[in-house]
Amino acid sequence: MRIEMVVFDGFDELDVFGPFEVLSMAGFDVALVAVERPGLVTSMRGVQLQVPEVLHQADGVVVPGGGWLNRAAEGSWAQAQRGVLPAKLAALAPSARWMASVCTGALVLAAAGLLTGRRATTNRNAYDELRALDVTVLDERVVDDGDRVTAGALSAGLDLGLWLTERELGAATADRVAATIEYRAAQR
């Protein structure tokens, strides 16, 4: 199973690397992918990555947050405003098994029309904004709505990775990964 994790200038590091490590340890084929073209991507705290691939075709897609709450010039809010990433997500959604988000990445999924009428979560400071997009917001670390799975802020990305691992590979694999990273997951 191939999982593509979208990275863009201004992404939050923990939103990406928490679930990346969990999903990789579980045995998934996980790739960091850019939105439009391969190349250098810089996180919100200055971590630079050379990203060789572009979002194109995956069984699962994870969208991080970063820069939404302060309307940063780069980050998830900027991606939603530009419209390229939401359009690509909307185009890929019918062929993907699921689309997931961490933190304010949920608002990017919502901008793509992928959470309309659905249950989801995001950073608590963005609940009202997500509700305004016709989303039923739940105060949970992970909300599974079938082919859309969302996680709350930052560290909830670890829970998302474990949730998806259990869902796809079973509880024993998720428990093994949780034990390996010495993390007690939220109730799955």
Automatic annotation (TrEMBL):
The cross-references to Pfam families, in alphabetical order and at most eight, read: DJ-1_PfpI
Instruction: Give yes or no: UniProt keyword Kinase.
Output: no
Domain DJ-1/PfpI as annotated: residue spans: 1-163
* Ranges that cross the membrane: 98-117
GO biological process terms, alphabetically, are: regulation of DNA-templated transcription
Which keywords appear in this protein's UniProt record, sorted alphabetically? Membrane, Transmembrane, Transmembrane helix
The reply on keyword Transmembrane helix is yes
The UniProt entry, under InterPro entries, shows:
Class_I_gatase-like (IPR029062), DJ-1/PfpI (IPR002818), INH-QAR (IPR052158)
- Would you tell me the protein name for this molecule? Cyclohexyl-isocyanide hydratase
Source organism: Micromonospora noduli
